[in-house]
Amino acid sequence: MLELNDVRLPGASVAFAHTFAAGEISVVLGANQSGKTDLCRLIAGLPTRASGAVRIDGEPVVAGPRHRPVAMVYQAFINYPNLTVAENIASPLKARRRAQAEIAAAVHELAAKLGLEHLLQRQPAELSGGQQQRLAIARALAKDARVLLLDEPLVNLDFKLREALQTELRALLKASDTVVVYTTSDPRDAFALGDEVVLLSSGEKLQAGAPIAVYTNPSSLAAMQLLSDPGVNLFERDGHTHAVRPEHLRVSTDGELSFDLRVTANETNGDESFVHGVVEERDWVVRTRGMLEALPGDVLRLSARHDDVRRFT
């Protein structure tokens, strides 16, 4: 278990506390400059503008980064370029003076789990981007840390590889009793990987809980925006700001609420369509299945259910 208390991140006006459970993947979701990396650096004991108290399994953690039971994987593919894949994975074990037989067994076990067993004698420069990131994760796991920090580890990968690694990572990490903190700016990661999601904005914790619970019951407009891709659509009723997600709008006249959207653009990938337009002088996006035919200048009648709309003061 990882406990944080009195955490103050850059730009925040208030401190927060949070407990991360062992054996679960906690996705910390926030935009750029929200404090995600500073939070990871605080936990890892690295230089940071953040402050706060860190406890692991009930014990205060004050040691430097080399002596903490914490491993961190960064956005960039940070591997030792002059070492083979096998030597990279073995490096944390050698630093702890483990027996040669134990090191060899651990290297082959981790390489097999991460699909690197046929690459053990290659140099990092001979690997693809996805293989390099798997190697960085394997080396972090070799440290046998109680806490594994993954700071946007898939952000530099192409979409298909990112999806494949998401599935592999969840299966691998869920099999351990490690505290896993995974930071991202993509709400899809929260649903694909997270047992819980922690929402950060300007250094402050907005909300935390199971991803579907936070999605269904956002505590604020900022929380609702973070778990929306594209962002939510806003409109005014009775002096209050209301929000509805793009995926909760339908092109129909049958809903409990109706809106007229003047189309400005239409994007489709064959599976989904994203129709951009204007409603009540606000920019909106509609996300709908299939290929919707809509041209700039068209007016579409949209509908939504009351249950899918949130009111904010």
Q: How would you describe what is shown here?
A:
This protein is of the alpha+beta class. The chain has two domains: 2-222, 3-Layer(aba) Sandwich (Rossmann fold), CATH 3.40.50.300; 231-312, OB fold (Dihydrolipoamide Acetyltransferase, E2P) (Beta Barrel). 27% of the residues lie in helices and 33% in strands. It contains eight helices and 18 strands. The chain has helices at 36-44, 85-95, 100-113, 129-142, 159-174, 187-193, 211-216, 221-226; strands at 2-8, 16-20, 25-29, 51-56, 59-60, 70-73, 147-151, 179-184, 196-201, 204-209, 233-237, 240-244, 250-251, 257-268, 272-279, 282-289, 299-304, 309-312. The strands form four sheets. It has a six-stranded mixed sheet, with helices on both faces. A five-stranded antiparallel sheet has the order 13-17-14-15-16, with no helix packed on it. α2 runs parallel beside α4 and α3 (100-113) crosses α4 (129-142). The two termini are 37 Å apart. The model has no long low-confidence stretch (mean pLDDT 89).
